[in-house]
Design brief:
508 residues, alpha/beta, 8-stranded mixed beta sheet, 17 strands
Length: 508
Amino acid sequence: MSANIAEMEKRRDAAKLGGGEKRIAAQHAKGKLTARERLDVLLDEGSFEEMDLYVEHDCVDFGMQDQKIPGDGVVTGSGTINGRLVYVFSQDFTVFGGSLSARHAQKICKIMDAALKVGAPVIGLNDSGGARIQEGVASLGGYADVFQKNVLASGVVPQLSLIMGPCAGGAVYSPAMTDFIFMVKDSSYMFVTGPDVVKTVTNEVVTQEELGGAITHSSKTSVSDLALENDIEALLAARDFFDFLPLSNRDEVPERPSADAWDRLEPTLDTIIPPSANQPYDMHEVIRKTVDEGEFFELQPQHGGNILIGFGRIEGRTIGIVANQPMVLAGVLDINSSRKAARFVRFCDAFNIPIVTFVDVPGFLPGTDQEHNGIIKHGAKLLFAYAEATVPKITVITRKAYGGAYDVMSSKHLRGDLNYAWPTAEIAVMGAKGAVEIIFRGQDADGIAAKTKEYEDRFANPFVAASRGYIDEVIYPHSTRRRIALGLRKLRNKELENPWKKHDNIPL
């Protein structure tokens, strides 16, 4: 028995050493943690249970039969984050550059199957040079197997990808199909083809960071939801973020104790709307003064800034928040903001997370650039997402709700459950000046001014919509938190089903 135990310990030590001390030191020299160190930070202390520690590749080409390291470049298993179950895989760059082999892929697929079976999220820590070239098509097949698992898990369990090193070629498509992606500045990158190929094909000279770094993907492309400063910050952010997520589509949203009174009034909201309709204000302030303890976990803060998305809590329970941001482009809807919010709404709907929408939108952004790049299709994505969603939906119109954008932003017509407006809300086809210039075309300046005043008195308020039942109540701004809390209580047992279908055909 003692000999067997000694052999087991020897194999375990070999597996845990990965590619060896020299490669571990090289990883540290780049400011990066090893695969196992990352799991130590991400998971509760002592909770990690590893699977497939002894798995090795079975490639015999190019001398690979003499290069076998237990674990084969990825650490897989399960653990807990603040006591809640999660399945994880962490690619080990010290072993064959974290490259994916058939066995490596098999290990990832195995933990994804386990997560689906029990209903628990999957977090992947990506740090890989791509497919293992020595295995040829077998490694490509391994990627396809992982892709298939990503698709089957989508909408069933939350999937989070942390890009903590290289992620190139076909490897990018697994994270791309997960729900959220966090990247690390200066040490992680994602691209389908690297700078050398780009230069050969297009003659463009570009760095890895410019082509697919964390800043590029969190500001320009929206591929990444957050760009964090280093490994530690990314892993701690993932822990905080995990606390907002239900374990699966069969679970309720998580709940945690809150000392913030559900009926807390916030008098400062009564004066937050500026006297001039053209003056901006920060919608972050409205959100933080409404949610528990002012905690708002914002996603994609550097992309599509004219709309805000993220998670907060009311009475300790997770809510998804979508809000127009008057500080950026006056809160107008455009291609980027529509796509950004639509995907978030669909995630919330898939995982039974109530959606609270704050509206201050003057319409859709005009211009040939928007029209030629498909604002019609992209704007329809957000409309489609809200209309399809069956979770509790509460809407608060704070100021402008003009034109088709009024409809799109979770209006009563898209099965909004509770639609509130502040007394400062203006719900109309367009602003008074533009409307009057169309209706009374040809009148002199004095006539236009008089008609504009008449139009404002008639329509620049929420009461016309309220008189038709499109607004359930005009509320005091200071009571917004209380109203939302009461509404969420009432809607907790909401039942609403869409007609049977294999799946919908959202305008991708």
